[in-house]
Design goal:
This protein is α/β, with parallel strands linked by helices. The protein is built from 12 helices and 22 strands. The chain binds MU-OXO-diiron.
Length: 404
């Protein structure tokens, strides 16, 4: 698509990455692709807020050229040093060598480390203006106001705010990996959009929830009017921008619903039989359940489902006195997300010596999940009584999911 004027004199000049399917070094699957959003603000002075992944540099520069000659850019605001937003910086500054790059002190350090080591081009000598919360740059009719946002989600992160439009450009915060020719929330399917926003929060921001909440509270305290939120990935929120802010507040508080996610890995099918019966028991007791064989499923999707689920049920066949490798990798990832206010229990089959159930419980505890049910271990395949036991365990655990 061409450049898009999102407000009079403010243009989206980013790039749509329709085909990317793995992000952050295969830690995140992007089934809907993504966008790298850059915004060009044309006033008496011209500012470019963020850039794009290096491989999309030419597209961004072409879109800028559709509005103004790039050499007219006075400021390049680097809200975040990560390469999906700063990758095109070495290319664009070739067109505007006198433009000031603006960012936090940590951003400056990160940019120099990223780009002065030789890749993708040397970047030295560019004038850099270090800013902190409350600093402003007047462009003429509009003002750029800066809000440091450390650890949302890197130490260098910053929001840019334009008070004249009540426009917040918060870089990664409030983003979604959602490729689309449309730019606004009122132009796309709302369910798909919120699904991607939740998945993005769960997989990237969940462990930073206390910082997210503090930042939202800080912004609420100063009564910052917000009419539009234009993140660096995906769709711009303009229909009801507080909807995504409120959703973030709920996720950051680890608010949950009476839902459960069952994740398991099975060797010969016995653990899977247990998983299905536990699921039946929980569903019959009125709890909404999603069930995943982790070896066949997309981890990013499962984590997205877990974000507002109260119950985590994890199962594995025993292998080598421990659990199978895919579920082990999944649990280690989950542990890093530091979920709170969750209850869990473990199950699995074994042949002669168990171990998987105990090991799962240990990792759940390390992750901060309360163990809310007695672990279920079955030797070889579950018999009729053991199948009944799985069903009953599901019903009992469902009550726990309804009431914690
Ligand atoms: Fe979208 Fe932290 O980069």
């Amino acid at each position: 698509m061409s450049k898009k004027e999102i407000l009079p004199g403010i243009y989206w000049v980013g790039a749509i990455d329709w085909n990317v399917r793995n992000f952050h070094g295969h830690t995140y699957t992007t089934k809907r692709g993504t966008t790298y959003n850059a915004y060009l603000i044309v006033d008496e002075k011209v500012a470019l807020v963020d850039t794009v992944l290096h491989s999309f540099s030419d597209e961004m520069i072409d879109r800028i050229k559709q509005v103004i000659p790039p050499e007219k850019i006075d400021y390049i605001i680097a809200n975040h040093v990560e390469k999906d937003h700063s990758g095109a910086l070495p290319e664009i500054i070739k067109y505007c060598p006198k433009a000031k790059v603006v960012g936090t002190a940590k951003c400056k350090d990160g940019l120099y480390k990223n780009y002065c080591g030789g890749a993708p081009v040397r970047w030295t000598g560019q004038d850099f203006r270090t800013v902190k919360t409350g600093d402003k740059i007047s462009l003429g009719k509009r003002t750029l106001s800066f809000i440091e946002a450390p650890m949302l989600h890197w130490p260098d992160s910053m929001f840019t705010y334009i008070p004249e439009d009540a426009l917040l450009i918060p870089n990664d915060a409030f983003g979604q990996h959602y490729a689309s020719g449309e730019r606004f929330d009122d132009e796309v399917d709302e369910c798909g959009l919120m699904d991607e926003a939740a998945k993005y929060y769960a997989n990237i921001l969940w462990p930073l929830s206390s910082i997210v909440l503090k930042k939202i509270e800080d912004v609420q305290k100063i009564n910052l009017p917000i009419k539009i939120i234009a993140p660096s990935h995906g769709i711009i929120w303009r229909r009801d921008p507080m909807k995504i802010v409120n959703a973030y507040a709920g996720w950051a508080k680890n608010e949950t619903k009476p839902k459960a996610v069952i994740v398991y890995e099975t060797m010969w099918g016995a653990t899977e039989k247990m998983a299905r019966k536990i699921s039946e028991g929980m569903t019959d007791a009125g709890v909404s359940v999603k069930l995943y064989d982790v070896s066949q499923s997309d981890r990013t999707e499962i984590i997205g489902e877990m974000l507002d689920s109260r119950g985590f049920v994890l199962g594995s066949s025993t292998h080598g006195n421990g659990m199978l490798p895919s579920i082990y990798g999944f649990l280690e990832f989950l542990k890093g997300l530091k979920p709170k206010n969750r209850t869990g229990f473990a199950f699995g089959s074994y042949g002669w010596a168990g171990g998987a159930v105990r090991n799962i419980e240990n990792i759940l505890r390390e992750a901060g999940v309360e163990i809310g049910g007695t672990g279920l271990s079955v030797r070889y395949a579950p018999d009729e009584n053991e199948i009944k036991g799985c069903y009953e365990a599901g019903r009992t655990f469902a009550e726990k999911c309804k009431h914690i």
